[in-house]
Amino acid sequence: MYPPVQCFAVHPCEFIRITKLLQTRKGAKMQFHVSAQKVRKDRRWATGLILVLGLCCVALLFKAVRVEAASDLMLPIAGLVILALTIFVTFRHIQQGAAAYPSLMLDEEKHQAAVSYNSVVVQVDLLQVKNLRFQTRFGRVKSIILKADSGQIFKLVGFENMDVLIATLERLVPADRVSRTAFLHQ
Length: 186
Fold this sequence. Notes:
- It is a single chain.
- 42% of the residues lie in helices and 25% in strands.
- By secondary structure, it is an alpha+beta fold.
- Helix 1 (12-25) packs across helix 4 and helix 2 (36-65) packs antiparallel against helix 3 (74-96).
- The protein starts with 11 loop residues before the first helix and ends with a strand.
- Residues 1-8 have low confidence and may be disordered.
């Protein structure tokens, strides 16, 4: 007896669009980038984080000004340094925009994936992948976790044409290494 088939919660028109797109790109190299929506969402989250950390810095400054002994200054100064570094890193992430995220290129003929980030390219043989996990939430795939045979782990979230990426990876990776889990059961 065959195991039950798992499918996506995709509208029939969307399914037709995906299959046509896959048929036209079959055997070609496909490039996937992070969506503009994901970049905007992360930018909003990072801006909120900077505001909260800025308020914490102001509170630590007031505490440092009201200190009576030099030994009481250690905690506010250490907190200010840590918060300032976090604000700087978060601000740099906002400045980089889409360049702060990895891009993925799939080569169907060679069964390889190339993940590039900050001018570093990592090649992954999709036939030798240890595990490919689709994490679902409310019936939709939210993230893809790819564990390479070399021990590297790639988490792919918020890519454009995510349905096409999922369908292509399912086709290229051996079926016994593909699994689906609920988002909270990572």
